[in-house]
Give the backbone structure.
Amino acid sequence: MADIAKVPKTNDIPVGGAKILSRFPQPDKKPVGVWARRWAAFKNPLDPEKAAYLKARWQELPECTKTPNQIAGRHITHCGFTLGASYCSFHCTHCYLPKNANSVPIPSLEQMKEQIDANRRLQGPGGGLQITGGDVADAYWRAGRPDELVEILRYTYQVGLVPMLFTHGQTLFEQPRFLEQLVVDGGLRQLAVHIDMTQAGRKGYPIQQVLSEADLHPVRQQFTDLALSIRERTGAALELAHNCTVTRRNIDHIPEIIRWVLADPDRSLIWRVLSFQPEADTGRTIYSEKPVTPEDVWLKLQEGSGFPLRREATIFGHPDCNSWAPLMIARPSGLAMPILHDNKSLDQFVKSIL
């Protein structure tokens, strides 16, 4: 592991609830000052190569999706992912993996680099790349190949993409030095942690005894504290995304997760994205007789935030694919407000910005 005391303190540029995408300085190179990179991004927000990729993506969109509020092809190309190690030590009630997932061999490092290269050809510079499978951190640690995951992260940055590692987090919580290695040596800055009542396998939280999402708040706090400690020790602005599968069992508890995050400014500093996915009839999922719908979930998001959030102010790709609403949070008070208000008179203004 690298000397933590020598780790650069300015490897990314968090701005509000998003990031300015820029070429990530490699861990073995002298980093450019954060304000210099912010100024460069302000003067030149879109390089010619990225502009060409966006134009190509826009031309490929179906005509019905080329709406004034469409972001794909204007500000993003795609959200890519790798199909890495499919192993996972959990046995959740809503799992997209096949039954033989844990017997599938981990791809070689060269195979993973081929997938990363393919994503770079599709997305262009600055594209987001989900490092996922099953639980990749779980798989590489248990296989005794943690250095390969570090190299996967480094290589992703080297080709000009921005990785986010997806995990249930149990292995990283039990092996915090491994997480620190991913941050220090691999450059990891974005970690998506899946926490919800569908999970079977988290130590100390048997699924039969988890009766509400509030029962899992100690787990969420553990990851909050872990991320804060890594930020303090390394100077790296590690940020977390909270993933949650929504089923009939936990849909009424979704507002509680949002309220928990918004209740403490340190939590909203660390948890930058809250993602709620309605259950899907795939993999090993035990599908509900009456599945939740995106509309059901959106109502709960509004209840938890306390705001009438707009679903259609902006869209990514197909309007049925995803909905989102950004909040602006003041520090240190923690006061929050929606950036895109539920006011249709503002639509034309937002469209003109896009």
Notes: Residues 8 and 31 are 7 Å apart (CA to CA). Confidence is low (pLDDT under 50) at residues 1-30. The chain has one domain: 4-45+78-292.
